[in-house]
Amino acid sequence: MTETVSGSTTRRGKGARKGLKMRRVFTSPGAHPYDGVEWERRDVVMTNWRDGSVNFEQRGVEFPASWSMNATQIVASKYFRGALGTSQREWSLKQLVDRVVGKYTETGREQGYFASDEDAEVFDHELKHALVHQLFSFNSPVWFNVGTASKQQVSACFILSVDDTMESILDWYKEEGIIFKGGSGAGVNLSRIRSSKELLSSGGAASGPVSFMRGADASAGTIKSGGATRRAAKMVVLDVDHPDIEEFVQAKAREEHKIRALRDAGFDVDLGGADIVSVQYQNANNSVRVSDAFMRAVETGSDFGLTSRMTGEVIATVDAKKLFRDMATAAWECADPGIQYDGTIQDWHTNPESGRISASNPCSEYMSLDDSSCNLASINLMKFLADDNSFDVERFERLTELIITAMDISITFADFPTEKIGETTRAYRQLGIGYANLGALLMATGHAYDSDGGRAVAAAVTSLMTGTAYRRSAELAGVVGPYDGYAKNADAHKRVMRKHAAANDDLRVVGAMEKPIHQAATRAWQEGLGIGEKNGWRNAQASLLAPTGTIGFMMDCDTTGIEPDFSLVKFKKLVGGGSMQIVNQGVPRALRNLGYHDEQVEAIVEYVSEHGHVVDAPGLKSEHYEVFDCAMGKRYIKPMGHVEMMAAVQPFLSGAISKTVNVPEEATVEDFEHIYFQGWKLGLKALAVYRDNCKVGQPLSTGKSEEKKEPAAAPEPKVIETNRPVRRRLPKKRPSQTVSFAVGGAEGYITAGSYPDDGLGEVFMKLGKQGSTLAGIMDAFSIAISIALQYGVPLETYVEKFTNMRFEPAGMTDDPDIRMAQSVVDYIFRRLALDYLPYEERAALGVFSAEERAGQVSGEDSTQVAAQVESYAQSAPVTEGEAGSGAGAAPAGTAHDTVELIELKQGFVADAPLCVNCGTKMRPSGSCYACEGCGSTSGCS
Description:
Elements: E1 2-10, E2 16-22, E3 39-47, E4 54-64, H1 69-78, H2 93-110, H3 117-132, E5 136-138, H4 140-145, E6 157-159, H5 166-181, E7 185-189, H6 209-225, E8 233-239, H7 245-264, E9 285-290, H8 292-300, E10 303-307, E11 314-319, H9 320-334, E12 338-341, H10 342-347, E13 372-380, H11 393-413, H12 419-428, E14 431-436, H13 438-444, H14 452-480, H15 486-506, H16 514-535, H17 550-554, E15 569-573, E16 579-583, H18 586-593, H19 598-611, H20 639-649, E17 660-663, H21 669-681, E18 686-691, E19 736-743, E20 746-754, E21 760-767, H22 773-790, H23 795-802, E22 811-815, E23 818-821, H24 824-836, H25 839-845, H26 850-855, H27 898-906, E24 923-925, E25 928-930
Parallel strand pairs: 6-7, 7-8, 8-9, 9-12, 13-14, 17-18
Antiparallel strand pairs: 1-2, 3-4, 5-13, 6-13, 10-11, 12-18, 15-16, 19-20, 20-21, 22-23, 24-25
Helix pairs in contact: 2-3, 2-11, 3-11, 5-6, 7-9, 8-9, 9-21, 11-14, 13-18, 14-16, 14-20, 15-16, 18-19, 23-24
Region (Disordered): 699-719
EC number: 1.17.4.1
Domain Ribonucleotide reductase large subunit C-terminal: 155-690
């Protein structure tokens, strides 16, 4: 796509300079990139399914016909600028892309990046084509800010610093708040702050970093609740040799114990609950920065020294193995802390002469100098899979060069939240190119995610991406100069480049697909080293793997970042309204690649559509099951499969990988220890592990205790008269009602009979086939409950005892008032409470109808609908799109996104939060969560 040549373009009056000669790959001379696209007009109306309120409405927006309705909704609601209902409001994707690309092209021309105006036009056209065809996307701040009257902030990831002074600590609070206010996230290492075991200059005891974390956490929570729609994205790191490390490790686990106590006392500690604000440290991810020395002490069972922050002397020793186990135990209990491996991080650091890498951004993929930032972009890998299942190496390389050029240009015009961050970023020009849809690529080509072949493909693609990015960075250094900090770090930077190239040489090719990719990567590294030796490099870092939450939806990716496929069936919104479930397109393609003929493929796809998995699918060989393993469900990828995939690509990344290793609820503390230890052995930079259901705050939970209270001690026996209870039988003819229900795919009926003067007197529950053991047990249970009701046992007693009882089947229900149940018994007694108990008693038990929950929402008017813009451009016809009522359309009151759909199919409950914007369940995206409905994320995007 490009060459470096002498050009006449001037840069700030410095005379003739070299510039990039751009070559067309995706576009043709004389044709605008928009001309070959079929455009159509659509109406975007987004609602909250919990209460029916309209969150966003804009009609007549213009998008390519190939874009899904989900991508259309997310872009129109999140990225279009201008007040709704005014002529200034953007209404077309063309306007959005023109706004952003225009700024990049203009700045590149002014700063001497291009050899001529013709080359600038080629750059402009190629970039517009790539964005409109969903080949890649910049991170969200670019779409929010570039080309607007706002500050031109392009970075989503920030690292701050804090020193051992009160002024620095207060500056940290302020800087973090500014970043959170803008919707981004920040990380910080608190290890410079003296420990609580050391003295102040006045002679008093120091507070220690964990104490100061409380203030920062409260600030983050306040700023979030003051206007943002997601929790603040925040990372706190502490070095393993800090004297307060034990307190840090236990901080969030202790708070989890507090949450359980508050829940059992009847407080509302659900996600977003009124009382959860009293719990500390809930707005940050915590990570321990472990050294190689510590890990070797764990391996040998040795003691490890904790050092004074003031003198550097060892002031205490700990049993390394015990501390490591404490870290694993805390993570087992509440998912924190994660681990960052300092030895590996510093070994791959290109700028050690400028300072250590001490922290990361909240999602752990960006690791660089303190007070710095990184702008991100991600490539849609599925766009480079050819019909013959080969990977289009040439187009992938050319797109990578184009993106790196654009990302570097953005640093030239970008604004930053603080001057310190601006100075560091402009001096080191850190970039974060990455990709999405790796999991979809592997499945479509018949590669199991957890396999040598899958890892080889992933490693080769990652090596090619980073090798090409650094080659382009070296070419840019010859055009506009190396980064300012390069001179004093030249030896270290070259050493790291050679380490990447050596890792590429060691990459073992397994199959035919990755062979040409690896050959191209080898060539890119060799050429890049030669050019860099002459020119230096323009960027201190080039690549990482981000979560790609919102932009992944914008690109219509099936999988995000490095993640495997979430599920085999997905929830698709239709252009004309409504929705339907579909089987991922990678499934039939994978089946054909594995040798199945069309009739077999059709039968297997139909089975997957029905069951959500491939186990026992007709005609499918069991040895092929692993190709269709997903992140969760009937067959999920084992935890070490995730770790080994991360290890396969880590040597080819400048930064790290945003990913959480999910383990089942029955995983042990020993499993956590093994995963964390293997992460170090395999050369990862960071690792976090999440055990299903380890957190108390679950979607739609009531805050009631699941545990039975210990009975009070029996009093001394006394001789007393007792009045035996009297059974009050129901009359022969009594009012009753029958309710049908479905919980986690299991269907049943509740028939409840009442006394004529009101009051529940009997309950019959039907579940399972007539004559089955389950049906018999339910009949016996029904009789026992009915007799007890007639003897005067209050219904509220049963509601209190049986709600939150957890066993399978569990999951989503078809009841709009009770969207999720932890078991059939949990559902039945919630339903009975809603039908037969007064509001005051239900409120005390935490059982509310959907209407009552909606009424409890604060007075923010989310139903106000903006006026429709009266005039639109004439470049695209208005189309009705597909009707949502056809075959396959999802019935009302069932699933609202892919997570809920797979819950219904496979009968499990995904341990994920509900989106505060639209109410649908979010799905994992790296170490964060992303909402498929509206694109909101739980972290930085």
